[in-house]
Amino acid sequence: MSHAPNAVARLRDQREEEGIKPIQARGWRATRCRACRVIESHCLCAWRPLVETRSGVCLIMTNKEVFKPSNTGWLIADVVRDNHAFIWSRTEVDPKLLALLSDPQWQPYLVFPGEYVAPERVTHSVTLDSTKRPLFILLDATWTEARKIFRKSPYFDALPILSLLPEKLSRYQLRRSTRSEHLCTAEVAALCLDLAGDAQAAWALDAYFDVFSQHYLDAKRQLEMNVETPAHAELMPFVQGSAASMN
Question: Residue 128's domain spans which residues?
Answer without folding.
Answer: 7-246
